[in-house]
Design brief:
The chain is an alpha+beta fold. It has two helices and five strands, in the order αββαβββ. A hairpin with a 2-residue loop joins strand 3 and strand 4. The chain is elongated, with a radius of gyration of 22 Å.
Length: 118
C-alpha cells in the first residue's frame, strides 16, 4: 500500500513540476525564451553574403569569428564583426537578412551595405 501512495505522490509532484516549467516558458504569448536564464540573451539568426574585392560573392558565417562555444550574438556584436571583415579588406561589402530573438520578441534584421538595420 505504501508503494502505491509513494508512486502516486511522485506522479503528482512530477506533473506539478512539468506544469510549472511549461508555464514559465510560455507565460507571455508571442515572446521567445521567457525563462529567467534567457531573459537578457539575444540570439541572431542571419544569412549573409559578402562581396570580395575581386567582385565574387560568397556566404559569410559570422560564428566563425566568435570565441569557441559562443552562440549569443546581438546586433551590436554582429556590426562589430561586419566592421572587422570590411576594414580588414576581406570583403568590400556584406549584405543579408535574418531575425533577432530576444526578450522583446522576434524582430526582422537586415544588413545593407555592411550596416545592420533593425
Amino acid at each position: 500500500m505504501h508503494a502505491f501512495v509513494l508512486s502516486a505522490a511522485q506522479i503528482a509532484v512530477t506533473i506539478g513540476l512539468a506544469m510549472w516549467m511549461i508555464n514559465g516558458f510560455t507565460r507571455l504569448p508571442g515572446r521567445w525564451l521567457r525563462w529567467r536564464m534567457f531573459c537578457r540573451a539575444t540570439f541572431t539568426i542571419v544569412s549573409l553574403t559578402g562581396t570580395t574585392p575581386c567582385g565574387r560573392t560568397e556566404p559569410v558565417n559570422v560564428y566563425d569569428y566568435l570565441s569557441p562555444g559562443s552562440f549569443i550574438l546581438g546586433p551590436p556584436q554582429l556590426q562589430t564583426i561586419i566592421n572587422h571583415l570590411t576594414t580588414s579588406g576581406r570583403y568590400d561589402r556584406i549584405d543579408g537578412h535574418g531575425r533577432v530573438l530576444s526578450a522583446q520578441g522576434e524582430q526582422h534584421l537586415e544588413v545593407r551595405n555592411s550596416h545592420v538595420v533593425l
